[in-house]
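quick one before i forget lol
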Amino acid sequence: MPDIGIVIVTYNSGAEIGRCLDAALRTGAEIVVVDNASTDDTRREVARRPVRLIANEQNRGFAAAVNQGFRALATPFVLLLNPDAVILTAIEPLKRYCSLPSVAGAGGKLVNARGPQIGFMVRRLPSPAALIFEILLINRLWPGNPVNWHYRCLDLDLSVAQKVEQPAGAFLMIRREIWELLGGLAEQFHPLWFEDVDFARRAKDKKYCMYYTPEVVAEHTGGHSIPKISLEFRQFYWYCSLLRYSARHFDAWTARTVCLAVMAGSIPRILAGIVQNRSLKPVAVYGKVIRLAARFFLGKDDISSLG
Protein backbone atom coordinates (compact mmCIF):
# COMPACT_ATOMS: atom_id res chain seq x y z
CA MET A 1 0.00 0.00 0.00
CA PRO A 2 1.51 3.39 -0.95
CA ASP A 3 2.34 5.85 1.82
CA ILE A 4 1.91 8.88 -0.47
CA GLY A 5 -1.44 10.09 -1.70
CA ILE A 6 -2.14 12.80 -4.24
CA VAL A 7 -5.14 15.12 -4.10
CA ILE A 8 -6.08 17.02 -7.25
CA VAL A 9 -8.93 19.54 -7.17
CA THR A 10 -10.53 20.22 -10.55
CA TYR A 11 -12.88 22.80 -11.94
CA ASN A 12 -13.39 22.71 -15.71
CA SER A 13 -9.93 21.21 -16.08
CA GLY A 14 -10.65 18.88 -18.98
CA ALA A 15 -7.89 20.28 -21.18
CA GLU A 16 -5.22 19.83 -18.49
CA ILE A 17 -6.17 16.90 -16.27
CA GLY A 18 -5.15 14.11 -18.66
CA ARG A 19 -1.43 14.95 -18.74
CA CYS A 20 -1.49 15.68 -15.02
CA LEU A 21 -3.00 12.30 -14.14
CA ASP A 22 -0.81 10.31 -16.54
CA ALA A 23 2.31 11.72 -14.88
CA ALA A 24 0.90 11.34 -11.36
CA LEU A 25 0.06 7.69 -11.96
CA ARG A 26 3.68 7.00 -12.83
CA THR A 27 4.67 7.92 -9.25
CA GLY A 28 2.78 4.93 -7.82
CA ALA A 29 0.91 7.17 -5.39
CA GLU A 30 -2.76 6.72 -4.55
CA ILE A 31 -4.71 9.43 -6.36
CA VAL A 32 -7.98 11.15 -5.52
CA VAL A 33 -9.54 13.76 -7.80
CA VAL A 34 -12.13 16.04 -6.25
CA ASP A 35 -14.17 17.77 -8.91
CA ASN A 36 -16.02 20.95 -8.02
CA ALA A 37 -19.00 20.66 -10.37
CA SER A 38 -17.19 20.96 -13.68
CA THR A 39 -19.36 21.48 -16.75
CA ASP A 40 -16.76 20.40 -19.33
CA ASP A 41 -15.32 16.90 -19.94
CA THR A 42 -13.14 16.84 -16.80
CA ARG A 43 -14.98 13.92 -15.24
CA ARG A 44 -14.87 11.88 -18.42
CA GLU A 45 -11.10 12.37 -18.63
CA VAL A 46 -10.68 11.32 -15.00
CA ALA A 47 -12.93 8.27 -15.46
CA ARG A 48 -10.64 6.95 -18.18
CA ARG A 49 -7.88 6.41 -15.61
CA PRO A 50 -7.53 4.20 -12.49
CA VAL A 51 -8.01 6.95 -9.93
CA ARG A 52 -10.76 7.74 -7.45
CA LEU A 53 -13.15 10.55 -8.38
CA ILE A 54 -15.22 12.51 -5.88
CA ALA A 55 -17.80 14.41 -7.94
CA ASN A 56 -19.25 17.36 -6.04
CA GLU A 57 -22.66 18.57 -7.19
CA GLN A 58 -21.67 22.16 -6.43
CA ASN A 59 -18.43 24.11 -6.25
CA ARG A 60 -17.39 23.67 -2.63
CA GLY A 61 -14.23 25.75 -3.03
CA PHE A 62 -10.61 24.69 -3.12
CA ALA A 63 -10.01 24.29 0.63
CA ALA A 64 -13.12 22.18 1.23
CA ALA A 65 -12.28 19.98 -1.77
CA VAL A 66 -8.72 19.46 -0.54
CA ASN A 67 -10.07 18.45 2.86
CA GLN A 68 -12.44 15.98 1.16
CA GLY A 69 -9.47 14.46 -0.65
CA PHE A 70 -7.45 14.16 2.54
CA ARG A 71 -10.30 12.40 4.30
CA ALA A 72 -10.65 9.97 1.39
CA LEU A 73 -7.03 8.88 1.79
CA ALA A 74 -5.27 7.10 4.64
CA THR A 75 -1.71 7.82 3.55
CA PRO A 76 0.64 9.59 6.01
CA PHE A 77 1.79 12.00 3.29
CA VAL A 78 -0.46 13.81 0.83
CA LEU A 79 0.65 15.83 -2.17
CA LEU A 80 -1.57 18.70 -3.23
CA LEU A 81 -1.26 18.95 -7.00
CA ASN A 82 -2.88 21.42 -9.36
CA PRO A 83 -4.50 19.88 -12.44
CA ASP A 84 -2.24 22.00 -14.66
CA ALA A 85 0.92 20.60 -13.02
CA VAL A 86 2.75 17.66 -14.60
CA ILE A 87 5.20 15.82 -12.34
CA LEU A 88 8.55 15.33 -14.08
CA THR A 89 10.58 13.55 -11.38
CA ALA A 90 10.24 11.15 -8.48
CA ILE A 91 8.40 12.67 -5.51
CA GLU A 92 10.00 10.64 -2.69
CA PRO A 93 12.36 13.51 -1.71
CA LEU A 94 9.30 15.48 -0.64
CA LYS A 95 8.37 12.64 1.70
CA ARG A 96 11.91 12.57 3.04
CA TYR A 97 11.75 16.24 4.02
CA CYS A 98 8.22 15.90 5.40
CA SER A 99 9.48 13.10 7.64
CA LEU A 100 11.94 15.39 9.41
CA PRO A 101 11.00 16.52 12.92
CA SER A 102 8.99 19.74 13.06
CA VAL A 103 8.38 19.80 9.29
CA ALA A 104 4.79 20.30 8.16
CA GLY A 105 5.23 20.14 4.42
CA ALA A 106 7.56 20.37 1.45
CA GLY A 107 7.31 21.79 -2.04
CA GLY A 108 9.26 21.29 -5.21
CA LYS A 109 10.40 23.31 -8.20
CA LEU A 110 7.75 24.57 -10.61
CA VAL A 111 8.80 25.33 -14.17
CA ASN A 112 7.17 26.54 -17.36
CA ALA A 113 8.41 27.33 -20.87
CA ARG A 114 10.33 30.33 -19.53
CA GLY A 115 12.06 28.39 -16.74
CA PRO A 116 11.60 28.18 -12.95
CA GLN A 117 8.61 30.10 -11.62
CA ILE A 118 10.68 32.38 -9.41
CA GLY A 119 8.54 34.56 -7.18
CA PHE A 120 5.68 32.05 -7.19
CA MET A 121 6.94 28.60 -6.22
CA VAL A 122 8.39 29.89 -2.92
CA ARG A 123 7.39 32.99 -1.00
CA ARG A 124 7.68 34.31 2.49
CA LEU A 125 4.49 34.75 4.46
CA PRO A 126 2.99 38.09 3.51
CA SER A 127 3.57 40.97 5.88
CA PRO A 128 1.05 43.82 6.03
CA ALA A 129 3.49 45.89 3.96
CA ALA A 130 3.71 43.16 1.31
CA LEU A 131 -0.06 43.06 0.93
CA ILE A 132 -0.40 46.84 0.93
CA PHE A 133 2.31 47.22 -1.73
CA GLU A 134 0.42 44.71 -3.88
CA ILE A 135 -2.94 46.39 -3.30
CA LEU A 136 -1.64 49.89 -4.06
CA LEU A 137 0.04 48.78 -7.31
CA ILE A 138 3.49 49.67 -5.96
CA ASN A 139 4.78 46.25 -6.98
CA ARG A 140 3.68 46.85 -10.58
CA LEU A 141 5.23 50.29 -10.74
CA TRP A 142 8.38 49.30 -8.82
CA PRO A 143 8.69 45.50 -8.90
CA GLY A 144 12.23 45.56 -7.53
CA ASN A 145 11.26 47.31 -4.29
CA PRO A 146 12.74 45.68 -1.18
CA VAL A 147 9.37 44.65 0.27
CA ASN A 148 8.39 42.76 -2.88
CA TRP A 149 11.93 41.36 -3.27
CA HIS A 150 11.78 39.92 0.24
CA TYR A 151 8.20 38.62 -0.05
CA ARG A 152 8.83 36.78 -3.32
CA CYS A 153 12.13 35.32 -2.05
CA LEU A 154 14.15 36.84 -4.87
CA ASP A 155 17.13 36.83 -2.51
CA LEU A 156 17.19 33.02 -2.14
CA ASP A 157 19.34 30.55 -4.03
CA LEU A 158 16.63 28.14 -5.15
CA SER A 159 19.13 25.69 -6.61
CA VAL A 160 19.58 24.25 -3.11
CA ALA A 161 17.13 22.63 -0.68
CA GLN A 162 16.25 24.79 2.31
CA LYS A 163 13.66 25.76 4.89
CA VAL A 164 11.09 28.20 3.53
CA GLU A 165 7.93 29.77 4.84
CA GLN A 166 5.47 29.22 2.00
CA PRO A 167 5.92 26.73 -0.83
CA ALA A 168 3.26 27.06 -3.51
CA GLY A 169 0.08 25.10 -2.81
CA ALA A 170 0.09 24.01 -6.46
CA PHE A 171 2.73 21.39 -5.65
CA LEU A 172 2.90 20.87 -1.89
CA MET A 173 3.22 17.70 0.15
CA ILE A 174 1.75 17.86 3.67
CA ARG A 175 2.29 15.50 6.57
CA ARG A 176 -1.10 14.12 7.58
CA GLU A 177 -0.57 14.50 11.33
CA ILE A 178 0.04 18.24 10.87
CA TRP A 179 -3.03 18.56 8.65
CA GLU A 180 -5.05 16.89 11.41
CA LEU A 181 -3.43 19.03 14.11
CA LEU A 182 -4.34 22.23 12.26
CA GLY A 183 -7.81 21.05 11.28
CA GLY A 184 -7.04 20.97 7.57
CA LEU A 185 -7.29 23.92 5.24
CA ALA A 186 -9.55 26.74 6.41
CA GLU A 187 -12.74 26.53 4.38
CA GLN A 188 -13.62 30.17 5.08
CA PHE A 189 -11.31 31.04 2.17
CA HIS A 190 -14.06 30.30 -0.33
CA PRO A 191 -13.88 29.57 -3.16
CA LEU A 192 -10.11 30.09 -3.40
CA TRP A 193 -6.99 32.14 -2.62
CA PHE A 194 -4.94 32.41 0.58
CA GLU A 195 -5.98 29.01 1.97
CA ASP A 196 -2.45 27.61 1.46
CA VAL A 197 -0.88 30.80 2.83
CA ASP A 198 -3.10 30.57 5.91
CA PHE A 199 -2.13 26.92 6.42
CA ALA A 200 1.58 27.75 6.23
CA ARG A 201 1.10 30.59 8.70
CA ARG A 202 -0.78 28.41 11.17
CA ALA A 203 1.90 25.73 10.85
CA LYS A 204 4.58 28.31 11.63
CA ASP A 205 2.59 29.54 14.62
CA LYS A 206 2.72 25.94 15.93
CA LYS A 207 6.54 25.93 15.45
CA TYR A 208 6.50 23.78 12.31
CA CYS A 209 8.43 24.69 9.20
CA MET A 210 8.24 23.99 5.47
CA TYR A 211 10.93 22.84 3.05
CA TYR A 212 11.67 23.47 -0.59
CA THR A 213 13.72 21.10 -2.71
CA PRO A 214 14.76 21.53 -6.36
CA GLU A 215 15.11 17.73 -6.68
CA VAL A 216 11.39 17.37 -7.32
CA VAL A 217 10.12 19.17 -10.40
CA ALA A 218 6.74 19.75 -12.03
CA GLU A 219 5.83 21.60 -15.18
CA HIS A 220 3.17 24.12 -14.23
CA THR A 221 1.05 26.20 -16.58
CA GLY A 222 -0.65 28.23 -13.88
CA GLY A 223 -3.99 29.96 -13.56
CA HIS A 224 -5.95 27.65 -15.85
CA SER A 225 -9.18 27.99 -13.85
CA ILE A 226 -8.91 31.71 -13.11
CA PRO A 227 -10.02 33.03 -16.54
CA LYS A 228 -13.12 30.86 -16.23
CA ILE A 229 -14.28 33.05 -13.33
CA SER A 230 -15.83 36.40 -14.29
CA LEU A 231 -13.72 39.50 -13.59
CA GLU A 232 -16.24 40.71 -11.03
CA PHE A 233 -16.17 37.54 -8.95
CA ARG A 234 -12.43 37.05 -9.48
CA GLN A 235 -11.62 40.41 -7.90
CA PHE A 236 -14.22 40.04 -5.16
CA TYR A 237 -12.99 36.56 -4.14
CA TRP A 238 -9.34 37.64 -4.11
CA TYR A 239 -9.96 40.69 -1.96
CA CYS A 240 -12.33 38.81 0.32
CA SER A 241 -9.71 36.14 0.98
CA LEU A 242 -7.00 38.77 1.46
CA LEU A 243 -9.14 40.57 4.03
CA ARG A 244 -9.92 37.30 5.80
CA TYR A 245 -6.23 36.46 5.97
CA SER A 246 -5.48 39.90 7.41
CA ALA A 247 -8.26 39.51 9.99
CA ARG A 248 -6.97 36.11 11.08
CA HIS A 249 -3.29 36.92 11.35
CA PHE A 250 -2.82 40.66 11.94
CA ASP A 251 -3.96 42.72 14.90
CA ALA A 252 -7.21 44.63 14.51
CA TRP A 253 -5.66 48.01 13.67
CA THR A 254 -3.27 46.51 11.14
CA ALA A 255 -6.12 44.58 9.53
CA ARG A 256 -8.09 47.81 9.25
CA THR A 257 -5.09 49.52 7.65
CA VAL A 258 -5.18 46.80 5.00
CA CYS A 259 -8.90 47.58 4.54
CA LEU A 260 -8.06 51.24 3.94
CA ALA A 261 -5.41 50.24 1.41
CA VAL A 262 -7.95 48.09 -0.44
CA MET A 263 -10.35 51.03 -0.65
CA ALA A 264 -7.63 53.44 -1.76
CA GLY A 265 -6.08 50.99 -4.22
CA SER A 266 -9.42 50.36 -5.88
CA ILE A 267 -9.60 53.94 -7.21
CA PRO A 268 -6.65 53.75 -9.66
CA ARG A 269 -7.80 50.27 -10.67
CA ILE A 270 -11.22 51.67 -11.54
CA LEU A 271 -9.67 54.46 -13.63
CA ALA A 272 -7.23 52.12 -15.37
CA GLY A 273 -10.02 49.63 -16.06
CA ILE A 274 -12.27 52.29 -17.60
CA VAL A 275 -9.47 53.42 -19.94
CA GLN A 276 -8.31 49.92 -20.83
CA ASN A 277 -11.73 48.35 -21.35
CA ARG A 278 -13.56 51.47 -22.52
CA SER A 279 -16.33 50.44 -20.18
CA LEU A 280 -17.79 51.47 -16.84
CA LYS A 281 -17.88 47.88 -15.64
CA PRO A 282 -14.80 48.38 -13.39
CA VAL A 283 -16.88 50.87 -11.38
CA ALA A 284 -19.30 48.10 -10.44
CA VAL A 285 -16.54 45.54 -9.87
CA TYR A 286 -14.38 47.65 -7.60
CA GLY A 287 -17.35 49.38 -6.05
CA LYS A 288 -18.29 45.99 -4.65
CA VAL A 289 -14.70 45.52 -3.41
CA ILE A 290 -14.75 48.93 -1.71
CA ARG A 291 -18.03 48.12 0.03
CA LEU A 292 -16.58 44.81 1.20
CA ALA A 293 -13.47 46.49 2.64
CA ALA A 294 -15.63 49.14 4.31
CA ARG A 295 -17.72 46.46 6.02
CA PHE A 296 -14.59 44.81 7.34
CA PHE A 297 -13.18 48.16 8.48
CA LEU A 298 -16.38 49.09 10.31
CA GLY A 299 -16.72 45.65 11.86
CA LYS A 300 -19.98 44.88 10.08
CA ASP A 301 -18.37 41.67 8.94
CA ASP A 302 -17.39 40.22 12.31
CA ILE A 303 -13.63 40.02 11.90
CA SER A 304 -13.19 38.08 15.13
CA SER A 305 -15.49 35.33 13.87
CA LEU A 306 -13.33 34.52 10.86
CA GLY A 307 -10.78 32.43 12.77
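fyi Confidence is low (pLDDT under 50) at residues 303-307.
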